[in-house]
Structure formats: structure tokens, C-alpha cells
Amino acid sequence: MKPRFLRFWMAQLALAPAWLIVIFAYIGTIIWTIQISFTNSKVFPVSNYVGFTQYSRLFASERWIISVQNLAIFGVLFIAGCLVLGFLLAVFLDQKIRAESVFRTIFLYPYALSFIVTGLVWQWTLNPTLGVQQTMRNWGWESFTFDWLSRGDRAIYVIALAGMWQASGLVMAILLAGLRGVDGELWKAAKVDGIPTWRVYVHIVIPILAPMFATATVLLATAVVKVYDLVVALTNGGPGISTEVPAKFVIEYLFQRQNLGLATAASTVMLITVLCVLAPWLYVQYFRTPRSAS
Amino acid sequence: MKHISRKLLGAAAVLSLLAGPVAAAEKAEVLHWWTSGGESAAVAVFADQFNAAGGEWVDAAIAGGEAARAAGINRIVGGNPPTAMQFNTGKQFEDLVAQGLLSNLDTVAAADGWDKFLSPVLIKAVSRDGHFYAVPVNIHSNNWLWYNTALLEANGITPPTTWDELFAAMDKLKAAGVIPMAQSGDAWTQVLLFNDVLLGVGGRDLFLKVFQDGDVDAIKSADFLKVAQTFGKLREYGDAGQQGRQWNQATGLVVTGKAGFNFMGDWAKGEVLAAGLTPGKEVGCTPGLGHQVYWIGGDVFVFPKTDNADAQKAQALLAHTMLTPETQVAFNAKKGSVPVRGDVDTSKLDACAQAGLKLLATPDASVPGSDFLQTPDVLGSLQDVIGQFWTTPSQTPEELQTKIADIFAAAK
Hints:
Order of helices and strands of chain A: HHHHHHHHHHHHH
Shape of chain B: globular
Radius of gyration of chain B: 23 Å
Oligomer: heterodimer
Helix content of chain A: over 70%
Structural class of chain A: mainly alpha
Number of domains of chain B: 2
Number of helices of chain B: 21
């Protein structure tokens, strides 16, 4: 048997590549990004420090404020909508219906499409002069109007709708697996006690599924923070700047508008926001558990 | 076995040494964003001429100017630059020059005598500190009004020459149930329309005060407010299908007679030609409605610095080929633009190009485009504000005026 310290260092050596990647590729670039955000870099990073100038410009920018608001609207609607829709679909599929696998495939299918395809499909479907609105009018319902896509105050809801259409199937798949894990004895016991089905779902099944809901929420939340392609394909931020999102702001200032300083300031703010949201969760995960377990 | 493979390897190495330089000679990967029907026909002229001159054109087309520029800059910064890359004439490639990432073209320029046939505006636009860094390939003008001649005739409208006439004509079209003005949903086309109004209603001096001097007082003036009001009024003449519509689809609506008017640069002509029609006949054109001012814009190619001698040779050949008189005439006829050389035979160009050339030759009737005068950062902020105004009918012209004034005040 090898001495203890040798084993320790062998393990560290084996982990070294991973450590290097974490330190240089993740933490290193994060620090570099934050550093650039305090400079007035244009196309290329320079080290001409200007303090918080980029940040004050960022928060004075109407486009950034709209982007953040849109992310909040989209995030809440998308996560809540997907969880509710996904749960209902899973419950319906769990009723021992015929051809279940066919429906499962249909509901999960949108998730196999990229956001770009989803965006284009919905763009064409909801274009007032090509899609649903025109079709209804051609069928004789002349006053039918559904022009949310070309209305600045409504277009963000269309994006949330398209997102829900795409991701609900994933939530369904996760929750369906969870529902299959619910002990059949529970249902029998509930039946004997004469408890209505909906109460069984609300008070017994949903609490059992809590870990599944947590998994689904984390997956959906990461999709929210990085939402970019869906917006680009569906509205490209328009009409005007009404459907801009933070990720698109960063990409555009990074490359097209040639302002690295402002772009990195925006991405630093995104990072801080995500950390703030994650902090309570991390705390519960890593600091609370040992005490409650012991 | 081992012996044979070593021999084979040796042979392969020798062959590759011999073949390498020959195969790579004059091979040029050219990154550009000319992907619509009319545009790709034009870029094929460059490819054919370059291949005929002994080069090998490798096409790297990326749809959308912004996406193409982002990809190109990334490749240059990443150390894997294309042989040549397209930019709009103006400040877009300024930082690349400042960082020393672009090849100096002085040798080619001196050999071909660029200073003899390029206009001073263009020479200023493609050189920095007295050195050439880009090849201008065309002169485009953004401020053209296109109209469907047959549709106008059918509604008893004579082609408008003033903005009041335009509004009267569009009212008639609206009453007749056709789209008065075809507009794309892309923000840059909304900016283009705004600049057309600024030039056409505000005139040359106001335009230069705003874009060249960044004069905030000029933006707060009554003249500028009139521009904003006219632009705001135009919002009433678009249709509901703008969102998601590309510029060529908007021009297509005029070409097919579904819409009466379209404000678009002279590259719209490429779409007219691609549809088998004649610009100036079935689809009429007016440069600079109102104050007759010609917007000078266009495209350039830059050549990222490289240590590879073959690539350098290819760059020199390409720079020379793009500016030969034959290439210039053939390319610009397809592209819908005007040749950068003042010394070529322009009689073969269509009626619209002739009208443009006439305006171009008039003293003080042209302005350098906004890309020449302001950074992508300022123009980007302007695009946000204008796009928002265009798509928010409740926003007032006064709000637009204040927001634009804020942008230029912040840029000082």
C-alpha cells in the first residue's frame, strides 16, 4: 500500500488537466472579461481604464433596460408555462391511454428542433400577412386579428409562447418518468379513503415530484439566461427594440457595434445576476444539507 | 512493409513540396455578404475576372452584413484571416488599420494609379495617414425612391417630385387598397428611410451638421423636427407584414405591383433586373426625393495582413482585378451601383444609373454616407432609437428628436 500523501498527490495529478481548464478557461476568462469591462476597448481589448463609465452607460441605455425587462417577462412566463403545460401533458399521458408512445413522441418532438427552426416556424405562422391571421381572413372571418408579432407591446409574449411550445415536451418527459415512480399503493389507499383525484395530485403526487420539478426548473432557467437564437430567428429583437434580450445585447456590442467595453460590462452584469439568483440555491445545496442530515 | 510505407511517405512529402505552392498560388478566399439574386450575379463577375487573370476564387459568402463582418473580424483576430474581406466604405475597418492587421496597398495603388481615377471622397475613405488599406469597388446611393410605373398609372398618379406629392400619391394608393409603401422589418432599412427623409426634407447642410459635426443644436432645431414629423407620418403608410420581411422582399412587392413605393438603395435595381425588368421603365426611380442630394456609400474590400507569400500575391492580383475598367463596368451593371472609376464608359449603364451619375457630377449635390462619418457604436444606438420610433406609433416626433440629440451629446 502506498503512503497516504503519495495517493493524495497522484489523485491531484490526475485531476490537474481539469483544474487547469477550470482555472484558465473559466475563471481566467471571467476575470479577463471583468477587467475589459473597466476599459474603453472598441474592437480590440486595450488597457485604458475608465472606471465605471461603461456601467453607467449600460444602465442609461434604454435598450439594456428593455432587454432586462424582457428577460424577466420571458423567464417567468416560459418557466411557469412549461411546468404547468408539461405537468398536465404528463398527467394526461399517465392515464394508461392507448398509443401513449405516439403522443409522447409528438409532444417531445418540438424539443428536437433547434430554437432557430422554432423561431422561423412561429415567425411564418404568426406573420399577419402570411400566417394564421391571413388564413382566417381568407376563410371569411374578415375581422380576425392576431398581429402580436408586429406589435411592440406584445411580441415578447409570442417569444414566450414559442419557447413553451418547444420546451414543454421536455418537462413532460421528466415529470412522466417521475409519475411512473409514484407507488401504486398510494393511489389505492387514496381511493379507499375517497379522496378526489385532483387532491391526490396536488397534495401527494406534486410533493413527491418536487426533485423532478427542481431539475426541470434548473434546465429551463439556463435556457432563459442564454436565450438568443430564438429571438434572433423569431423577431431579431424587433419590432424596434421591443424584444431585445441581454445575450443579444452582448453579442451585438461585442461584434457588430465594435464596443468590447460595453459588451463585457453587460456580460459582467449578467454574471452577477445569475450568481445572485444561484447563491441561495448553492447555500441550501452545500451548506445546509450536512446539518440536516446529521 | 515498413520499408514501402517509408518510401511512400517520402514520395508524398516530395510531391506535396512540389505541388503545394502551385496549388496554393493565387488562391483567394473572399468573405462577403452578397447573397441575394442580384448580388450574387454581381459577385460572380469578380470571381470570373479573377479566375481569368490566373487566380482561384474561393467564395465565402455569409448572409447579412453584420454577421459577415463579425465572422470576418473574428477570423482576423483569431489568426486565420480570409484573403480578402468586404466592408462598407467608411469607419468599419478603422480599428483593424489602427491595430496593423491590414495589408498596405500602396504598391498596387501606385502601379495602377488609383489617385488618377478615384474621387477625393473615396480616396479619403479608403486611406489612413496617406496609405491605402482598402479597395473601393462601387458607389452605392441609399436615397432612392422606387415605384411601380404601371400601378401608378392605373391610379392616375404622376411620379412624385416632392414629399407633399408623395403623400398625396400614397393616400390615393391606400384608398385603392394596395400597400402604399413597401417597408422591410429590418432596423437598418428603417434607418435608411430616416436618412432619406433627413436628406430629402432637411437637405444637405442639416445632414452634414448632424452626422459630420454631431451638432446637437442642429438636432434640436425646427428643421430637424420637421424631418422627424415627416418620418413619423410615413409610419401610417406601411403594412402589417413588415416584421420579418427582408429588404429584397419589400422591393419585390413593388416589382410585382403589390405595393406602390419603396425607399431603398440603388442595389434594389439588382432585384428589378433579376425579375427580368428594366429599371427606369417598369420600375421607376427617383434619386434624392425633395432636395436633390446624392448619398455616397458603397463597399470596399480589405486584405488582412499575412506572411504567406502566395496569399500576398493573390491579394495584389485581386486588388488589381477588382479595379480594372472592364471589371468595374461589368460588376456595377449587375450590382446596380456606379463604377468608382471616373474614366470608364458609363453609357451602357441603365437610365437610373445615368440619373445618379448626373447628380454625382453636380457640385455640392452629394454627401458622404453616415458610415463614413460615424462609428458603428453611434450608428447602432441611432438604429435602436429609430427602429423603436418606427414600430411604436404612439411615440411622438419630439421624443425622437430628444433621443437622437442625447445620442450625439453622449458621443462627444
